[in-house]
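User: Hi! I'm a student and our assignment asks us to look at how structure tokens line up with a sequence. Could you show me two examples?

Assistant: Happy to help. In each example below, the sequence comes first and the structure tokens follow. Example one:
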Amino acid sequence: MKNLNLLIVEGNLISENKNFKDAGIQTHTESLKESIANYNNNVNYEILNPSSEDNFNNIIDKLESFDGLVWGGSSLNIYNDTPEIKRQIYFMKECFNKVKNIFAICWGMQVAVTAAGGTVKKSENGAHIGIARDIKISVAGLKHPIYKDKKKLFNTPAFNFDEVETIPSGSILLASNLVNKVQGIQFEKGISKIWGIQYHPEITYDKMISLINFRKDRLINFRKAFKNETDIDDHIKNIEEENQRTNKHSRMQEVKNWLEFINEN
């Protein structure tokens, strides 16, 4: 692959990333860089956390210089409409005018959908906590480059309590499962071609297990997603079994496919 100039947008607040580091967990930006390195080591990176003031305006001034943008996950909920979230939506709208290729992952997809006029809500059919099962690629998705060489039905790392409710005008639905109808989507806005996914091919199951342990109290007492620690431990065992069955390159196929796409376009 040729040298690429990529912008990685960090969706988590600085305080949350500090919590990650204190717990010995990679930030989502670190996970993205590690995954991308499996397929292209000739990458020049710029990193931006739009919820922070650091280098915000400098990055906006040179958005046209990037071959692509990857916008990762976050623990935020977009309907809370805080100043930090508003800054992220504002920045995504700026990107639509200046960045041709956007890979929007989980929170990134929710920001992109919202910035393009769609809506996001709390998921009505439950959550994905560490894993999403039985994602089915649509007829349109089978023809789309994001799912080249991907199995038609697959499991994948995921962590989300929210879902896309309405999609932007002109969107193509690429994949779904029983929990979230919108698991994969493509739409265009401004000059941007946006590939959006609700799950995390760039994050390992091991990290997902670490995140579950890190958020254990929150998952039991606030989210009410588990009854107790035994319930969580049983869930983790299921993810560990899936981890044993999963080839890392099949897990990261979407990352590889997007890099190949922007390398050729």
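Example two works the same way, sequence first and then tokens:
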Amino acid sequence: MSEIVLRVEKLTKRYGSLVAVNNLSMEVREGEVFGFLGPNGAGKTTSISMMCGLLQPDSGRVLVHGAPIAGGSADVRARVGVCPQEVTLWGKLTCIEQLVFIGQMYGVAGRIARERGERLLEELDLIEKRNKQAHTLSGGMKRRLNLAMALVHNPDIVVLDEAEAGLDPQSRVRVREYIQSLARSKTVILTTHNMDEAERIADRVAIIDHGRLLVVDTPEVLKNSIGQGDVVEIVLGEGIERTRCSASLQERLGEQTTVTAANGTLTIHARDAVNLLPAIIEELNRAGLKPAGVHLRESTLEDVFIHLTGRRLRE
């Protein structure tokens, strides 16, 4: 098993009566892409800030390679690089100047910072913009430059907060591929609201809500554990008593399935759902219901996320 490079132990942070992070414990392994997921207000940003040493916890601790990051040495903090959700650049500095400046802030010699900066600009398709001021760049270019700034001091762990936010499809694919390539030599912690992105690139994911850790495992294990593999979506007409219908279906299909009703649709999670379709249609006919549509698909990480955190909108 890979070495544990970051360990979170009983991390707690309060803001007055609000408990933003509540007794959070987890481990991140060397060389993995670790998805850190949760709804708005779940405590992700607060947790990430403490993991990076930017925020002092009320209790608990974060260890990087066994050493505490809060109150630790500059060398410990330098082992973590951060690409924040909000793009942070100096508008009048050129791309290469940004990277040299950040590198020197971390104690990297100017010549080495420049060499690393040139290489990162090449890898992120920004080399032609090396001498352009940051304010002249497109939104996608600015985000890629921010990613380079998180890497120029060569950290062991890279924290990417919504790395694909606001990117066009081409830039999104380029950043996703680059994140995957980083995992060969670095550990990546990724926060995102894009469940498809997390499912594509994360080796393991943690889902938190209300500051508490709900689950942590591989996407495949989580998908198989919630709803047992397949999803049948049945679109019903308006005005139908969906609650009573879902209850009768749940009783007919048994405990190995999960039936929910929302927004005019019955959603059934079940293993080997194809073989359950005749029983589902028979039960609907018995109830006098004629579906407007029936769709069968595999379970996704988004299904797991909604199952654990609910459908209620978050601000």
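Here is something you could point out in your write-up. The first strand starts at residue 4 and ends at 15.
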